[in-house]
Amino acid sequence: xxxxxxxxxxxxxxxxxxxxxxxxxxxxxxxxxxxxxxxxxxxxxxxxxxxxxxxxxxxxxxxxxxxxxxxxxxxxxxxxxxxxxxxxxxxxxxxxxxxxxxxxxxxxxxxxxxxxxxxxxxxxxxxxxxxxxxxxxxxxxxxxxxxxxxxxxxxxxxxxxxxxxxxxxxxxxxxxxxxxxxxxxxxxxxxxxxxxxxxxxxxxxxxxxxxxxxxxxxxxxxxxxxxxxxxxxxxxxxxxxxxxxxxxxxxxxxxxxxxxxxxxxxxxxxxxxxxxxxxxxxxxxxxxxxxxxxxxxxxxxxxxxxxxxxxxxxxxxxxxxxxxxxxxxxxxxxxxxxxxxxxxxxxxxxxxxxxxxxxxxxxxx
Length: 365
Known about the structure:
Blueprint lengths: L3 H46 L1 E4 L2 E5 L4 E11 L3 E13 L9 E17 L6 H11 L12 H5 L5 E17 L6 E16 L5 E9 L5 E9 L4 E12 L1 H6 L6 E17 L6 E18 L5 E17 L3 E3 L2 E9 L10 H10 L2 H9 L1
Parallel strand pairs: 5-6
Antiparallel strand pairs: 1-3, 2-3, 3-4, 4-5, 6-7, 7-8, 8-9, 9-10, 10-11, 11-12, 12-13, 13-14, 13-15
């Protein structure tokens, strides 16, 4: 017969071991893991990419697998800040792993600022970072072998119940033109729900964004991963046309002093086929208050009150295009002659046919 005292001692040891394990797991999850993750991340960014990474705080709950990150920044010594993130939280559901499914209940990103640049040599920040990553890798490092699922093309079971982005600012700069171009694109809100790798299931998404000047872009739709398809509707209003000629100002003898572009359509895209199938329907597009001026002139030589197309459709790969109505209102074209007797259209046509390289060579000669 076992001694009651011995049984009590064994039970006490088991309880103590369990308490110690929980205490160590708690300390490792709440304290050690965020500390290690922060230092590993900053070290990798510095050694592999030459970037300075910093964060205000990182929180992880080892019991609910809930993660929060605040005040994350990436900066390059030469180019300055590349990315700034105010807040992100991730709510992962570890219990779903028992059913062999990866499930993210909530992934929210708030206040993200990205500086995307194309340098004067044609390279981009992304290509430069990719080259740095490749050049700082371990010599002889081999890529991991493909798993059976990857070889078969079968996707693992995964699901995102909610992906939410808000206040995303993308600053675009292009230094290739002689006059550098810059603009900003803002994603006010993006929400994706119930996205799954399960066959024949679809999630819904909605995005509201703005181009410079506040031109609103709205996209509503549904997306399926297996098969890879998406459908929905898109609306763009009051897009500032002068931005286009501002980008190409060094190559054009003219510019748009005013003008707005509007677009509305329904779309269906099927990328599961050998040849992508794209259908655009109920397409309505047009421009308003367009004024085209020659460089150095204040008066427009072409003006359009409004021009538009409605009832349009485009189908690929059938290569069919159709529309029910085309209208132009208030078109005014002026042929202007300067003091030298040159007509503006011929003068600009001559400038179009003369490239900057031709002018440079002629000057050098």
